[in-house]
Prior knowledge:
This protein is an alpha/beta fold and 350 residues long. Helices cover 40% and strands 23% of the residues. The strands form 3 sheets. The protein has a 6-stranded mixed beta sheet, sandwiched between helices. It starts with a strand and ends with a helix.
Amino acid sequence: MTANVKVSIKNLYKIFGPAPESVLEHAKNGVDKASLLDQHGHVLGLKDINIDMKDGEITVIMGLSGSGKSTLIRHFNRLIEPTDGQILIDGVDVMTLSADDLRKMRQADMSMVFQKFALLPHKTVLENAGTALRVRGFKAEEADVEARKWLDRVGLAGFEDHYPHQLSGGMQQRVGIARALTSNSAVMLMDEAFSALDPLIRTDMQDLLLELQKELHKTIIFISHDLDEALKLADHLVILKDGEVIQQGEPQNILLNPSDPYIEDFVSDINRSRVLRVRSVMQPLKEAASSTAGNVDYNDTLEDVISHSDGDTTKVYLVMHEGEPVGTLCMKDLVRALVPRVPSEESIRS
């Protein structure tokens, strides 16, 4: 493992059924999900998953219903036991932990934000936010100090004495995030954390998470079925289908270079101008640029540049990053990047 890899999944398999170990070799020899069920009466949940998640980054694992994403996230803290493979946290295989060590890891090293909020209805907002510290034996006063700090950070100062039923869905999810932050765990697991929220509230929560992440640099593993959300949040994107990783990497690169017909279809309807950034389309600066139409930022969206250019495709811009010139952006290259690959006939037939 490299020094900056926080969580690593290696050769992970999960098979559901009465005797999963007896059919493991079939899965390893290439038997697919449908065949394993038809021929052997077992369900292939995950097949040969290999993912490295870097410290301080957001890894988004996404796929459609039945792809295995929620099954996968429950392996990180062994809420589900794998059939085979390794789960490494800071180089330690979670599978080797005793029951006591596993409990300590769940309490101190990992926090989880759930889709359905999972707040205790008989506890106040303050008590809910401080749950993890109270379970670990902190005095109520100590837990309350930390909980108040994070409730304030997520915009819930003044609601400490309310109960969950008195809050909106978005506010309840803010309590869930405050609870995860109060635990001070290095790894946050977020299972479809925003999918139950209305679209505008969901956008607000995504923005809040990104704002907090700029300061905290947590290792966040986020499950989503929404590609727009995944592209907005992810430093590292993993796309699953039928329990297998189809493609993973930097989201901008996946959008520009889909490696599989399934991915081509997946990204074909995305509003590329709002998602793609200047950094993904620019040419590196090889010499001093001349006669440019002005400056654009490395992290601007292509939509920002289109607005700035008034649609003039003859313009070339100097790209700036942290005050330094790093490249040039030709509007003709930008326009080409807006056109997705045509989905293949193979993917249409499937």
